[in-house]
Amino acid sequence: MTLAIVIACVPVAAAAQELTVSVDSAGTLSRLLPDSVRFTVAELTVDGQLNGSDLKIIRDIAIRRQTDKKQPSQCLLTSIDLGGAVIVDGKEGMRTKAGELPSGLFSGAKSLVSAVLPRDIVSISRSCFSGCSSLQEVTIPETVTTIGAMAFSGCSALASVSLPQGVKTIGSQAFSGCEVLGAIVVPEAVTTIENGVFNGCTALGEVTLEGTVTAVGNNAFRNCQALKVISLSAVREIGSQAFSGCLSLELVDVGSVTTIGSSAFQKCQSLTAIELPAVLTKIGSSAFCDCSSLEEIIVPKRVKHLGNSVFEDCTSLATAIIEGFIFNLGDDTFSGCSHLSQVVLPVSLKKIGSDAFENCVSLADIVIPVAVSEIGSDAFSGCSLLAEIGLPVGLKKLGGSAFKDCVSLSAVRMSAPLPPKTSKNAFRGVTAGCRLYVPAGRRHAYAADKVWSVMFTNIIEGKTN
User: Model-level pTM?
Assistant: First the structure.
C-alpha cells in the first residue's frame, strides 16, 4: 500500500490539499485515509480496486457541508478523480457491483466542482451526482452504456457534458435542473428520451439526436426556455408536457408522430407554425394551449381524438382546419383565440363542447356540421363578430349561455323540426331584433315552446340555410 500527499500552492487561509491515494486491496482505503487526513483534502485522486466500504469513505468526504472552525486545516472536497479506480462487488458500506458507480454516491455533494469517473465503468447509477450544485465538469468514460435516473439532476452549474457514443439508456430526469447546460448530443444508440430527462434545463439551446429516437417522454424538455429548433423526424410518440414552457421554440419537425400528449407544446410562445403529419391519430388536452404566436393549424384526417383546450389562448391563430374523423370537439378547444376567423369542422362531428369558441372575437362565420346534436354551455359566448348562425337538423341540446354576448348576431337559422332543449340564457346579450328562422310549418312549435318563445319574438318560417 502506498500513500502520496501533495500540498497545493494555495493561500494559507484555505489550507487546501491535493491528495493521491493508490489502493492495493479493496476495502483498505480507511487505513490510507485516517480521520486526521480525510477532511483536509480539496482535490482527491484515488487509484486501485474499490469496494462499498471504500466508496462510503469517499462519499462521507464529498458530502460534507461545512468544516470545523476549530480545525483550520480542514476544507471541503472540490475535485474527485477516480480515473484509475476499479469498482468491484461488495456489500459493506455501500452495495457495489463491478463496473457501476452506486446509487447516490455523490448525491448532495454541493462543494464538488469536478469529477473524473473510473475508466472502465458501464453504468452511472440512480442519483449518483444529484444535487451537486457546484459541479462544472465531469469526465465520463467511453465504456458507459447506461446513465441512471436523476444521475445528474440538480447539477445547476454543469455547463457542458460529453456523452459517450456507447450510451444506450439515459434514465428519467437524468439531467433535470441542469440550468446552465447549453448543448447536448444524444448518442445514436438512444431510442427513447425518458421522462423529464432535460426538464428545467433553461439554457439548453441546442439538442442533437444522432440516432433514431422514436419516443419523447413526459416533461422531457419542459421549460427548456432557450431551445429554438429540434428535429423529431423519427419520433412516434411525444409525451405529456414534453416541450411545455419552451418559450423560444420556433421550429419543430414531427414528421412521423402518431400521438401528441397533453400540454406537449403548451406555452411554446415563439412557435408560429407546425405541420402535423398524416399519421397522427391523437392530440391530448392543452397540447398547444397558449402558443400565442401560432397562426394556422391543420389537423389531419387520421386524428380521432382531440382533447380539451388543445388550442386555448392561441391568440394569433387565424385559421383552423380539422380534417380528422372526430366526434367530439372538447371543452375550451379554441377558447380565447382572439384572431380566429376561419374554422372548418369535420363532417363527423356530433358534439361541440363547453366554451369551445368562447371569446373568439374575430369569428364572423362558422358552419356547424349536420351531425352535431349537442352544443355545450358558453360554446360561442363572446363571439362578438358572429353575424348569423345555422343550427343543424339533428340538434337536440343547446347549452346555457351558448351564444351569450354575441352582440352582432342578427339571424339564427334552425333546421331542427322540434325546438332543441335549452335554457333562457342561451342567447343572453343578443340584440332583441335577432330573427329566428325555422323550417316550413314549424313556427308554431317554436312559438309554443316556453323557452324559445321567450328568447325570440321574431320567428320566421323558411330560409333555414
Answer: 0.92
